[in-house]
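Researcher: Please generate the 3D structure of the following complex. Treat every line as part of one assembly.
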Amino acid sequence: AQTVTQSQPEMSVQEAETVTLSCTYDTSESDYYLFWYKQPPSRQMILVIRQEAYKQQNATENRFSVNFQKAAKSFSLKISDSQLGDAAMYFCAYRRSGGSNYKLTFGKGTLLTVNP
Amino acid sequence: GAVVSQHPSWVICKSGTSVKIECRSLDFQATTMFWYRQFPKQSLMLMATSNEGSKATYEQGVEKDKFLINHASLTLSTLTVTSAHPEDSSFYICSASTGPGKLFFGSGTQLSVL
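Model: Done. Output below.
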């Protein structure tokens, strides 16, 4: 079974600084997707970034980028120029590729605090 | 992106009553929808996978007779919590897929059972 591990229950960062959230996963599949979701106090799940396992290039979305190490099964999220609005719970997630009925497996989450 | 509408946003009910939560895909057809449960300060736990026109697939430990899922159309899935009890109080979230790498979430339903 696939598992996703986020070893940092809480992280904090100063506004305008950079922070990296860690995520490791375990799977026997070769083709899959990895995601970072943000859940602010509103509890709406917001997709931050997505990585396809067959792509070697790390995904980036504005201030958000990932370091995807497939062999090490590591998928960390870097937030640059942190803003107060980045404060939220961040979940790393894994989904097997190939079918719409494959479930999303979440890590336990990392609560990010941004200090002004 | 695609929009998933979930209603109600919050509901309070008495112990022993049933509550229905709706999840609609507004601008796409969803053959598969997923139902999650989230306790405070915890991660999302998958309850069941809802497939249009067929029985839902429940995760281990989830009571299928308590959490009834119906996916009668390509745009609507419902979760009914039957004979709700205080321990069923939780945040319930649905999601729908438009493809293997694309999942969209509803805004969630906070259920409080008195």
